[in-house]
Amino acid sequence: MGMTNLDTRPDEEVCGAVVPRGPVVERYDAREVPLGGIRAMQVRRTLPQRGLPFVGAWCFLDEFGPQRVDMRVLPHPHTGLQTVTWPVAGEIRHRDSVGSDVVVRPGQLNLMTAGRGIAHSEFSLGDEPFVHAAQLWVALPDGPADGPASFQQVGDLPVWEAPRVRATVMVGSVDGAVSAARVHSPLVGADVVVEPGGAVEVPVRSGFEHAVLVLSGSVEVAGVPHGPGGLLYLGDGRDSVALQADEGARLLLLGGEPFGHDLVMWWNFVGRTHAEIAQARAAWESPDRADRFGEVAGHDGARIPAPELPNVRLQPRRRDAR
Q1: Does 285 show up as a binding residue in the annotation?
Q2: Is the dihedral of CA 146, 315, 15, 29 positive or negative?
Q3: 120 labeled binding residue
Q4: 101 beta partners
Q5: pLDDT tens-digit profile of 73-107?
Q6: Is 122 annotated among the ligand-binding residues?
Q7: Where are the domains of the chain?
Q8: What gap in Å lies between CA 66 and CA 90, rounded to an integer?
Q9: Best CATH choice for the domain 14-256 from the list 3.40.50.2300, 2.40.50.180, 2.60.40.10, 2.60.120.10
C-alpha cells in the first residue's frame, strides 16, 4: 500500500491548477506503473494526468490489488503533501519519524501530513497477504506546506446512508456526515457501496469539482457507464452525483475546491519550484537528513535513496481552456 512513488527514474511533473467549466463527464484511463522494490507489484495510477493534474487538492491517486503481495517499503521522505491510505483488504504496519507505529486495517484511514518533511515506512503483515488499497496525496496550501509534520489515524468514520447505498466518509463531509480527518483545503473523499439495484443522488457541493474511481463492479455515474481502471471526472457545478448499479459496485467519490497553487511533483516531494524539490532531495541524501526528515525507528538506518534529479525542466501541466 506504500504511500510512495518508488520509480527509480520518476518524471518531474509541474502541475497547473485545474479551472473547472461546469459539469462534464470525462474518462481518464489509468496508467499501469511497476513499482520497483515491491515484488510483482503493479499499481493503476489515475492522478496526475496531463489533462487533469488535480481534483480539488487531490493530486495523486494509485490503486493496487486485489492481489497477494509481500510489501516492504523502507523509510522514504515526503514534503508538501498529506498522504491518505485507504485499505480495502489487508493490513499494513505504518511507522514514521514523528513516532507513529500503527497498523491500518479496512475501515480505518491513515492521514500523514508531511509539511516541510517527514519519513515513513510501510510493511504488509503476514506472508504474501491479500491486499487491495487506494493511496492518495493531498497537496498542501501555503503555510501548512512548510509547517510541522504530523500523523492521524481515524477509525470511527461517519456513514451516510440511503436505500441500498452506504457511503463511508473518509475526508470532509457528505450531507452532514463529517469525518474527523484534519485536512487543510475544502475536500471530500467517500467510499461508496451501491448494492445491486441501488440508485441514489449523492448530495455534493456545487463549488467542488468531483471524480469517481470504481474499485469493483460497474456503475452508471451521471448516466454514464463506468467500471474499474479509470477515473471519471465530473467537473463542478453539481448539487448531486447520480449513481446506479444494477449488479452492485464499490467506488471512491473524490472532490474539492479547485486548488489555487502551481505545483512541482517529483518522486515523493511536492513543492512550488524546482529549487524546492532539489533542496528536499539534497536534504534526504545528506548525512544530516534527520534534521529535516527525522528518523523512522526499527530499520537500523536502512532507507530508500532518492533518484537522480532530471537535467531538464518540463513545462507546467495545465488543463486546456474550454
Answers
A1: no
A2: negative
A3: yes
A4: 95
A5: 899 999 999 999 999 999 999 999 999 999 999 99
A6: yes
A7: 14-256
A8: 9
A9: 2.60.120.10
